[in-house]
Amino acid sequence: MPYEVQGVVSRVKGEPVSLETVLVPDPGPGEAVVSVQACGVCHTDLHYREGGINDEFPFLLGHEAAGVVEQVGAGVTDLEPGDFVILNWRAVCGTCRACKRGRPWYCFSTHNAHQPMTLADGTKLSAALGIGAFLEKTLVHSGQCTKVSREAEPAVAGLLGCGVMAGIGAAINTGAVGRGDSVAVIGCGGVGAAAVAGSRLAGADRIIAVDTDERKLTWAKDFGATHTFNAAGKSEDEVVEAIQELTGSFGADVVIDAVGRPETWREAFYARDLAGTVVLVGVPTPDMRLEMPLIDFFSRGGSLKSSWYGDCLPSRDFPLLVDLYLQGRLPLDKFVTERIPLDGVEQAFARMHSGDVLRSVVTF
């Protein structure tokens, strides 16, 4: 018998979201129904609403979530009702070429639930990132459920499902930040602030936060930035020079671009030390282009990387980061700016757009 619940749906590109009745089917083979306890409002949800991901409307939004397993389908042996889980959008297949090469964090064939969730009239919904968690219960593939300690508050734990994991992973997994390294993070919203936190966790000696908003620079200090630079009104050269000046004129060992624009990527490229690393974790739009002298790529050496979901392996990284949070070593709770009801998502989008919050979190 399908569950009948309330969920946040985007019906038309660019139009406000609405609260709709959603039918969630009983789990089939390999699937699970999760009672959602909290779900963060992520920029990706806004991108879906604006048509920036694809045009498969209507969308069931929400994906940065934690909750309790309600029911499992046939063949599910590693989950049971009552398990506290963080939902992830990298349920690795174990059989693709990346998985077989021992690199499951690059899995090319991740799993989602086979059955669709629908509106009351039978219209199929496209679940954001294969999850759709702005509703009371959601249907996912069992591999999208990562068990963690139930001591973690759902509003905090759920943030690891996307943005916070992307930033921490960009520093630790992709950028391989190590003890004594110098790091610059360009763009200090939710993902950038998480990259700062990840750099501190990894033992970086100098962490430089760069943004055009003084509020975000203050947040970055709370997560471990040792230096800040307000880039408002500054040229690319001035940003590069500021980072070099703070690193003994050499440039940072790792520079993380959490904005994803040609100008910020160029800043990251030239603000790193020789043989340093650039990590792109901010998401560019398809129309963006980059033009640079090829000789600069050759002469400066180092690594130029992009970080997708922080190159994370949820089964490995989520429990570890939750444990670090519970030990007081990772201040995940500082990312939660406000807790909101389910009908507050549209207003949360506006606050996100104006830069007033790190994360709004829907709580049930």
TrEMBL record:
Check the record and name the SUPFAM superfamilies matching this protein.
GroES-like, NAD(P)-binding Rossmann-fold domains
- What Gene Ontology molecular-function terms does this entry list? mycothiol-dependent formaldehyde dehydrogenase activity
Superkingdom of source: Bacteria
The residues covered by the Alcohol dehydrogenase-like C-terminal domain are 190-324
Range of residues in the leader sequence: none
What's in the keyword line of the UniProt record? Metal-binding, NAD, Oxidoreductase, Zinc
One Pfam annotation reads: ADH_N
Domain named Alcohol dehydrogenase-like N-terminal: which ranges? 28-149
- Name of the top EC class for this enzyme: oxidoreductase
Q: Which family does it belong to?
A: Belongs to the zinc-containing alcohol dehydrogenase family.
What is the name of this protein?
S-(Hydroxymethyl)mycothiol dehydrogenase
Q: What organism is this sequence from?
A: Amycolatopsis magusensis
